[in-house]
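User: My collaborator sent over this chain with a note saying "see what the structure looks like." That's all I know about it. Can you take a look?
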Amino acid sequence: MHWVYFSKLYLTKFQAGCLAKRLEEDGWIYGFDDPRMVEVYRSRRGRYGVRFIP
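Assistant: Without extra context I'll predict from the sequence alone. Here is the result:
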């Protein structure tokens, strides 16, 4: 079990949250079956990203 990090970082938590919700609902668009867990995280530089466990 390991985290898969989505490649893009966002300026706001809202933008990352929208992507996280889309991955939860429509992960098949990106080639992933329903991920077990999706999380918004904050990078060291203050940007937000999305990671998930497939």
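A starting point for your reply to your collaborator: The chain has one helix and three strands.
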